[in-house]
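Structure request: HAD-IA family hydrolase, Isoptericola peretonis.
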Amino acid sequence: MTATLAGCEGPLAAAHDLALVDLDGVAYRGHLPIPHAAASLTAARAEGMRLVFVTNNASREPEEVADQLTGLDIPARADEVMTAAQACAALLRTRLDEGARVLVVGGAGLRTAVTAAGLVVVDTADDSPDAVAQGYSPELGWGDLAEAAYAVAGGAWHVASNLDLSLPTARGLAPGNGALVGAVSAATGVAPDSAGKPSPTMYRLAVDRAGAERPLVIGDRLDTDLAGARSGGYPGLHVLTGVSSARDAVLAEAGLRPDFLGGDLRALLEPHPLPGAGADGWWTCAGRAARVADGALELDRQGPTGIDVIRAACAAAWAAADAGAPVDPASVPELRA
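Returned structure:
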């Protein structure tokens, strides 16, 4: 499998009719706004781009997420929010009939989604649940994880809303749902199924709901947001305001690579020049250049700052890796947009 950057001569917001926007690390960080996010999304809507906010967080109701976004000057309705809880409930219904019992280990959003899918929520493994639906909630404790382990060990199908090991907050990275799911898996030896990113389930649900023809995935994590875009066949924009860095993008394996790169959501309003191969192995993009020589990444004399040198570095490193000569990670510096 190979994958490289794409180009766009005009603004992405004009070229795509729907943006599937991740939340943590893209629209906000914890409870704090990310600079330029609100203004950029408002401008994208003015270009005719519709928005659906797609989050691996299963703890909250869509109405609560929409209210938070609106409070950050990003007006949103509940039907413009797609949560991992909704995707988890949809996955459960692929094997469970209406009325099946599900032990929900998670927040109110997951309980609501499971109930809305026609399933019966139970609170203990003693109720012989057919499945365990596990999602993140800051209130989860040892007792909740123990009930999940008892049920899974007893034969219940274990479905996780997502497997994110970390969760970005205003204070830094905290344990995510994947870390909590790992505790149950360690106790039972059973690997769960997952509905959240990098599975493309949420993207497909959101695209179908909107009836979109030219969707664009926007995320900050290569291993979830952009991997889900690749696996679902959707173009993806990686913004450098969250978990995965520009250096991570340069070193990304094919299944995690974005189609577009931007420092922040202002990238929706800008053209995206396509890097091209030149002489002596140099890849150029809008006047910036990078190459891989003898396994090491080399940048032009302007150094490691600027989105176009990041694009050139990605093109050079990915081409080298796909040719069987991957770049030495030690030669890749921290890059800044």
